[in-house]
Amino acid sequence: MQAAAEERNYACDIHAYPVAEAREHEKDADMVLLGPQVHYMPGKVKEDCPNCAVEAIDRKAYGTMDGKSMIDHVITVLEVKNG
C-alpha cells in the first residue's frame, strides 16, 4: 500500500497494529483498515476510534496484496469523509 501511495504521490503513513491497540493510535489516524481476520469488528473499532473512518480490507485485495486498489479505496473514503 505504501508503494502504491508513493506512485500516486499520495502522502500517507501506513502502520499495522493489533485491533486491541486501535484506541492508542486513534489520535494519529484518519482511517483504520481491518484485515480479513478481524473484518467483523468495525463496530468495536468505531467505538474506540470515533474520529476515524473504519473499513474492512477487501479479501481479494488483501490476498493478492493489491495495494493500488486499497489506496484508491482509502482516498475515495477520506475524500467523502472530509468533504
From TrEMBL:
What InterPro entries does the record point to?
PTS_EIIB-like_sf (IPR036095), PTS_EIIB_2/3 (IPR003501), PTS_EIIB_3 (IPR013012), PTS_sugar-specific_EIIB (IPR051819)
| SUPFAM superfamilies cross-referenced by the UniProt entry | PTS system IIB component-like
Q: Does the keyword Kinase apply?
A: yes
| TM stretches of this protein | none
Instruction: Please provide the record's keywords in A-Z order.
Output: Kinase, Phosphoprotein, Phosphotransferase system, Sugar transport, Transferase, Transport
Domain PTS EIIB type-3 as annotated: residue spans: 1-83
Name the domain of life.
Bacteria
Q: Which Gene3D superfamilies match?
A: 3.40.50.2300
Q: Give a single Pfam family match.
A: PTS_IIB
**Name of the featured protein:** PTS sugar transporter subunit IIB
